[in-house]
Amino acid sequence: MNTNTANSGSKKTQSGRSARFSLADWMPKIVLAPTMIIAIVCIYGYMIWSAVLSFTNSRMLPSYKFVGWDQYERLFNNDRWMVALTNLGIFGSLFILICLFLGIMLAIFLDQKIRAEGALRTIYLYPMAISFIVTGTAWKWLLNPTNGIQKLMIDMGFENFKFDWLTNPDMVVYCLVIAAVWQASGFVMALFLAGLRGVDGDLIKAAHLDGASTFTTYRRIILPSLKPVFFSALVILSHIAIKSFDLVQALTNGGPGYASDLPANFMYTYTFTRSQIGMGSASAMVMLGCILAILVPYLYSELRGEKNEK
Amino acid sequence: MKKIALGLSTVALALAAANSQAGEVEVLHWWTSGSEATAINVLKQEMEDAGDTWKDFAVAGGGGESAMTVLKSRAIAGNPPAAAQIKGPTIQEWGDLGFLANIDDVAKAGHWDQILPPVVSNVMKYDGHYVAAPVNVHRVNWLWANPDVFRKAGASIPTTWDQFFVAADKIKKAGFIPLAHGGQAWQDATLFEAIALSEGTDFYKAAFIDLKDDALKGPKMIDALTTFKKMRQYVDPGFSGRDWNVATSLVINGKAAMQVMGDWAKGEFTSAGKKPGIDYICVPAPGTSGQYTFNIDSLAMFQVDGKDTQKAQKDLARLILEPKFQETFNLAKGSIPVRLGMPRDKFDTCADSSMDAFNAASASGDLLPSMAHGMAVNSMVQGAMFDVITNFFNTESMTPEQAADKLARAVKASM
Amino acid sequence: MKNNPVARKTSGVSKVLRIALYTVLLAMAFFYLMPLVIMLITSLKDSEEVRNGTLLSLPAYLHFDSWTKAWSGACTGSTCTGISPYFLNSFKIVIPAVAISTLLGAINGYVISLWKFRGSDLFFAALLLGCFIPFQVVLLPMAQTLGWLGIASSTTGLVFVHVVYGVAFTTLFFRNFYQSIPGELVKAARLDGAGFFTIFYRIILPVSTPIIVVTVIWQFTQIWNDFLFGVAFSGFDSQPVTVALNNLVNTSFGGKEYNVDMAAAIIAALPTIVVYVLAGKYFVRGLTAGAVKG
User: Fold this and answer.
1) What digits encode the pLDDT tens for the residues C38-70?
2) How many domains, in total, are found in chain A?
3) How far apart are CA C288 and CA C16, in angstroms?
4) Does the beta carbon of B60 lie under 8 angstroms from any beta carbon of chain C?
5) Is the ipTM of this complex over 0.85?
């Protein structure tokens, strides 16, 4: 990573320069100001506000009667919330693993001087372009046992073919995984393909001269050098997993029962239809906690990494 | 940034000024199925005849879930729509927050106290003042049946749940779907509510209105849950997440034999050109012939600025209770008018029997608010019940005893 | 790119491998295409065929009726305008929101990587965290803010919301890209007397094309596909196309018209599909140029 920056500028101006330069010195801060205000108010302000609400008994609209940790206690006594959290665990880990696997595999395959690479790449990538509000309808259809894949196979003569995950409470979460992988794995492919194209060619040549096989070259030399890509992909994927909302809304609406609920949907339902803003906020805080647990190590290594390079 | 904000607020002011010139009402609703849309068009037309502009704000989906989000966001932003489709105890909740407009003068001029049954007018009032206009009365505990399918299967229309299962077995054997059902929480609750109702009015009241703990986990509840779970064998595998009107169309098309659903289902039969008594049969849900669970649709009036808007809002409230609208709307939607003493000649046999049942149940004390449709309890308790009911229906391993226990605990936790 | 690890051997083994490779790639292409193909086939059938045929059976002949109906005739509630007016709304929201958030992101990235000051790294970290806030949390306070600014239930309000929650991502993209620009370049320009904006305009912007493409594509799809903000903050006349589509799909008149639903869905997705197909190449290229080096 090249991080030789012009950060020495500010030090120079402190020792007294012309007025033009001191304006230039202020310029960066002025320019950042709008974004800063936005971040402070619309991100951190709202977060703190939600945190405060999670300690109140707010119902239909916010109120400020404080009840301590009650809402958190109720939250973790709530069966539906536990289902949502468990689902996030299953969904999140499977989704991330499969996407990474497929993404890396497809990227490596596409990197083998494939004919029609452009077309294939576009095909793999396009699901990311479409909202689940759009494709949810098609997926719902495909996965529905009475008119989807199951019916298709039975019509084709496979009488005993069974694919009813969408209506099976124990399996429905895997439907979410299928649909989500379909949507995001192409994007992971694009990230890794970009990474592969950025790998130094001399390195590979040297490995080949040493007699390393293609497989070894990938495993020992190329993939390790893609660590940053790996990391970006991981962060983006966990971000998608935790925020998954449209997916559930369009595909299952949490059903059957509430077997396919995810935390984002739980929070939405409780805050907006159940008039339990207090509990909804508490669940949002737990979600934020999960996100921080993933993100803080990433940020830490990112910023520390830079210092080391200086 | 400031400049942008200033510019934006000028634009907004200009827009607001433009808005207040015409007498416009923005109506937020989720009446989006075929029959519902036909019904709402009637109102729109009448408003336009009265010289007002109707701004249709339909937000479809899932029993108004999205619509409620919109309403909350609009209310918090300080510009609620002039009228919104909310009902039952929720009207009281909005009233508590001080958002609703007093329409006593319209009510007085229209003699609402005289023309509305007290059970209806009580729901429309907050703190003794009218804040909402009732549109119709739905009966929820109906069984819709396709006689053709019954004939082919050699079954007869059931009047008790025991008979229901006998008939359902025959129908299943004949290769039809016995029960058309959609696996959405509110539909599960609608079915369950009808079964629980057959356990008796006193039980229904204790469990779903007074929320008594011993009723919620008592033997009658367990009995009802057992019957309810049995239904799972008589729905088709594709029921999950299906909309109610798609389920109704299964009965219409002769793929399924029965559906337990409120009389909005009749609207779908009507718009498909089917005749009651010939193409389809409406009977009270098994074991509940003397009872009547009601669901009243209403438009609550929100406090709005601007004289013209307020005038249009009052026009809307007035028109809703006019006999002409009550007739055309309810003919399309399948429900019965809220107004007492309406001429019945245009209504079909189903509506006719619904009106009789309403009066009879009202006299005998068997007129009950529907839990599944938010008439009996507030959204928190309702939600807690939905969770348990729908989860029980879809979880094979859960026993009725466990479910009853869960129900009692969930209700307690949500209060 | 020339140094591809697969040497051009023509032995039998590698031929078999090659065939296996293509088989896997094509199978995956089928998996990715399936939903779209089914949507397309269904949209071209008439309702009779939809009811009787299977998912993959081809239409007997092509019906474009459902497309015209989805575009301009389908009803939601008492309005029967199809999704065309909402399609326009989406453009009214997307174009300004993408332009503003990209510009802000570019300048922010420029400052954070090339004009560092005390706290700018911290600011960046804080902003990055902001990308991850669950959007459901902000609905209520944002509604209040929009009301207070006087832009609730308008497309302007939606533009504002999308800029606010998009700028974190755009900043991230530009910052990562500008990290690779040597600081000496800026230092030298400053010694020559060039100011803050001159450097940005003359030196930085001309090399930013790849990352601008990535950012614009990303933002365009994100905002176009947004449903949550669209439904919560729009008025009856400013709903974006995703909300209209959801309304349309959930509306049915005695039996579902799947063909119209599917046609509407494809129409709603067309702009983003077109963007990806036309600019997909630049997207990968832009990612290569730096966005993935985070």
Assistant:
1) 888 888 888 777 776 667 777 777 878 888 888
2) 2
3) 31
4) yes
5) no
